[in-house]
């Protein structure tokens, strides 16, 4: 039986991670394992709010524990750079309630 | 962020943190029996119903609703034994309220955060499901 | 081990659910959600597939001025729904009466 989340194709690509507490972390996928623990390089958090546009917080090299990950999205970089995130207003995502 | 509690000894410095390997198993009562063919069969049948079902659904459009109230529609690309789901050509159902994933077209969703999956009616063979469920129930 | 028992024997909770196959059941879920639908499949985690599902979500808001609790219910129907078992609080077989 094949195991693991099968994120090989995303290694060295920019991904957008939604964590269970509702944060959005963007970075370059450097590694992952069976439990969806991931290594993110050059990562930064995109902070959404209704008061101002999206703020970027620099985080650096992060290892995120799989249990706290909701979504791993492949970022379409062309699409992403065509969007003006500094004008985007939205509520932060709700946390996952198990 | 939790901080590691300072151990009282560490203030003195030069603390040897090397773990001396012991001959005794740490938790002898937790040693598992050698796997038998019976236990392996058990693992195989257990919970393969929905894993198998979702594998049949690959290529169809589904809507995955998460426990953070996000709903993501997309083409089912793959599923694994944890019911982790990969979707292609994704779009968030209420994109105005949730622009967070606007530049994401393919995504991996962890099985544990799934609340519902809305299934395409043509992808549900009711009789087949009943039979598979009865077979799986007997296995238990 | 249960091969000689007849199909209708009810020894453990899941047997009762087996007898509800192809019947309309009531499911209470976490985060104030309730489902009514026809049970088409389930496993030992109480993952399920329901058909002709009605979902009722109950939300409570506090009125800004009077501080009164306003209870709202939202309903929707879904043709076929896979329900992850970890959110299930209780399952009730079809009502014999009514």
What does this structure look like?
Helices cover 6% and strands 43% of the residues of chain A. Chain A contains one helix and five strands. Chain A starts with 13 loop residues before the first strand and ends in a 16-residue tail after the last helix. Chain B has helices at 37-45, 48-56, 126-139, and strands at 61-66, 71-79, 85-92, 104-109, 114-118. Chain B has a domain at 45-138: SH3 type barrels (Roll). Chain B starts with 36 loop residues before the first helix and ends with a helix. Chain B has a five-stranded antiparallel sheet. The longest helix of chain B is centred in the C-terminal third of the chain and has 14 residues, at 126-139. Chain C is mainly β. Chain C has a single domain, classed as SH3 type barrels (Roll). Chain C has one helix at residues 13-18; strands spanning 24-29, 33-42, 48-62, 69-83, 88-92. Chain C has a five-stranded antiparallel sheet with strand order 4-3-2-1-5, with no helix packed on it. In chain C, strand 2 and strand 3 (48-62) form a beta hairpin. The longest helix of chain C has 6 residues, at 13-18. The chains are: A mainly beta (98), B alpha+beta (140), C mainly beta (98). Chains in contact: A-B, A-C, B-C. The A-B interface holds A 1-7, 16, 18, 20, 22, 24, 36, 46, 48, 66-67, 69-77, 79-80, 83, 88, 90-91, 93-98 and B 66-70, 72, 78, 80-81, 84, 86, 90, 97-110, 112-113. Strand 5 of chain B pairs antiparallel with strand 4 of chain C, so a sheet runs across the interface.
Describe this protein with a few key phrases.
heterotrimer, A: mainly beta, SH3 type barrels, 5-stranded antiparallel β-sheet, 6% helix, B: 140 residues, alpha+beta, 5 strands, disordered N terminus, RNA binding (chain C), spliceosome (chain C), RNA-binding (chain C), Sm (chain C)
Main beta-sheet strand count, sense and barrel state of chain C: 5 strands, antiparallel
Strand content of chain A: 35-45%
The CATH class of chain C, by name, is Mainly Beta
Order of helices and strands of chain C: HEEEEE
The largest pleated sheet of chain A is described as: 5 strands, antiparallel
Strand order in the sheet with the most strands of chain A: 4-3-2-1-5
Mean pLDDT of chain C: 90
Overall SS class of chain A: mainly beta
User: Termini of chain C, distance in Å?
Assistant: 37 Å
Count of β-strands of chain C: 5
| Tally of discrete structural domains of chain A | 1
Q: Please give the count of helices of chain C.
A: 1
Q: How many β-strand runs of chain A? A: 5
* CATH-defined topology of chain A: SH3 type barrels
Which architecture of chain C per CATH? Roll
Topology as H/E string of chain A? EEEEEH
Order the strands across the largest sheet of chain C as they lie in space.
4-3-2-1-5
């Amino acid at each position: 039986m094949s195991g693991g989340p099968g994120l090989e194709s995303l290694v060295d690509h920019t991904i957008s991670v939604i964590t269970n507490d509702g944060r959005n972390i963007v970075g370059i996928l450097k590694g992952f394992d069976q439990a969806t623990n991931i290594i993110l390089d050059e990562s930064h958090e995109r902070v959404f709010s209704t008061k101002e546009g999206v703020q970027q917080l620099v985080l650096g090299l992060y290892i995120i524990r799989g249990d706290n990950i909701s979504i791993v999205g492949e970022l379409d970089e062309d699409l992403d750079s065509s969007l003006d995130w500094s004008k985007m207003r939205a509520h932060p995502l709700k946390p996952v309630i198990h | 962020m939790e901080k590691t509690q300072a151990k009282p000894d560490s203030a003195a410095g030069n603390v040897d943190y090397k773990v001396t390997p012991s001959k005794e198993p740490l938790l002898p009562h937790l040693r598992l029996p050698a796997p038998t063919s019976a236990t392996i069969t058990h693992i195989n049948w257990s919970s393969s119903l929905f894993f198998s079902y979702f594998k049949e659904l690959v290529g169809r459009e589904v809507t995955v609703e998460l426990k953070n109230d996000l709903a993501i529609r997309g083409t089912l690309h793959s599923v694994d034994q944890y019911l982790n789901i990969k979707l292609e050509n994704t779009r968030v159902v209420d994109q105005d309220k949730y622009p967070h994933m606007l530049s994401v077209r393919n995504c991996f969703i962890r099985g544990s955060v799934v609340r519902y999956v809305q299934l395409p009616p043509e992808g549900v063979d009711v009789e087949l499901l009943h039979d598979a469920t009865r077979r799986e129930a007997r296995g238990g | 081990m249960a091969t000689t028992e007849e199909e209708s024997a009810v020894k453990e909770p899941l047997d009762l659910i087996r007898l509800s196959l192809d019947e309309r059941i009531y499911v209470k879920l976490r985060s104030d959600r309730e489902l009514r639908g026809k049970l088409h499949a389930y496993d030992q985690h109480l993952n399920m597939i329901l058909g002709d599902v009605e979902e009722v979500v109950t939300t409570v808001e506090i009125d800004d001025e009077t501080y009164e609790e306003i209870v709202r219910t939202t309903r929707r129907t879904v043709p076929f729904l896979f329900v992850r078992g970890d959110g299930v609080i209780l399952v009730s077989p079809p009502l014999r009466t009514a």
